[in-house]
């Protein structure tokens, strides 16, 4: 859809629970938003090579293209790849929503976020923190089959996330002019090295930034 916002899913994709959870949540977000938000889920990206650097480059290029990023911060230790994608997005001033559904306390903040303090405090970033066990039991106790339970759980979760997407898009951008925007993105294409610059041409970059401006995800 031409007026839709692309959302990059940053998070674990190493086991069946991660993979299915990503699939269900991404589909629910698209359904509940009427495809106003379209999800880019890394597990669905084709990998034509087994080289780790190519996989890294492919994922980071999708971050560059995204209008927003949804960051999964579950676990007692944050996934290092997810943290890299989050900080790369923040360097580009891409609006972000952090999702933590893990009810366990983690990290080194006594009264702050339940994750490492170095991942907190960034502009244009909102948070959704919930007790997934409590939400699951609420959905389960209402009865019905598996599909009904999943629809209740992920419908509620996606609506909560969508509200934060709408709010974070309204926050003031750190980038206040077109030249600064272009400079930031040009540098972002250079610093990863290892062929990353070759993935997006100068013409493609200008087209991408023009599209982001038109949608209001940059220079707000």
Q: What are the salient characteristics of this protein?
A:
single chain; 220 residues; alpha/beta; Rossmann fold; 5-stranded parallel sheet; 5 strands; globular
Estimate the global geometry from the Cα principal axes.
globular
Which class best fits the helix and strand makeup?
Answer: alpha/beta
Rg calc = 18 Å
The beta-strand count equals 5
Helix content: 40-55%
The fraction of residues assigned to DSSP E strands is 5-15%
CATH architecture: 3-Layer(aba) Sandwich
Number of helices: 7
Order of helices and strands: EHEHEHEEHHHH
Strand order of the largest sheet: 2-1-3-4-5
Give the C-level CATH assignment: Alpha Beta
What CATH calls the topology is Rossmann fold
Distance between the termini: 21 Å
Q: Any idea how many domains?
A: 1
Give the biggest beta sheet: 5 strands, parallel
Segments where pLDDT lies below 50 for 5+ residues? none
TL;DR?
The protein is an alpha/beta fold. 47% of the residues lie in helices and 11% in strands. Helix 4 packs across helix 5.
Give the arrangement of secondary structure elements.
Blueprint: E1 5-10, H1 16-32, E2 37-40, H2 52-65, E3 68-72, H3 80-91, E4 96-100, E5 125-129, H4 132-141, H5 146-169, H6 178-190, H7 202-215
Parallel strand pairs: 1-2, 1-3, 3-4, 4-5
